[in-house]
Amino acid sequence: MPGITDKDEDATYLFANINPAFDEDWYSVFVKDDPLGRIDPWVQLSSVPAGQQYQLCVEYVCQENGNPPAKQCRTSYGGTVKLNFNVDGCHANCGMFCQNDSGTLIIQVKPLTAGSCESYRLDYGA
Asked: Which CATH number fits domain 4-125: 2.40.160.210, 3.60.21.10, 2.60.120.380, 1.10.3720.10?
């Protein structure tokens, strides 16, 4: 998917569905840490079709050789779920003057029920 920066106005969204049954959706988004910006990546799953249960799992992979945050997963039973990440550890091993917390969001939307032709909404930003 198109990359974003840590500017709030770069946040975006998409609509997709789980079809065929039990298919999983995977996304990859590069997040650029602009100088003097505060990077705080997040991913939100909403509008899960009625009667469906979807699990949102997100991993953040640091661009530098740092310490990424732990992978997170939450299940939506039709409501909104949001995952927030502290990526300060990403610049831990890139040198004394390095503050680069850029990285890639690896996003998985996994159906715990069969799925639906109706769309869910996935928002992401930093």
From this structure: 2.60.120.380
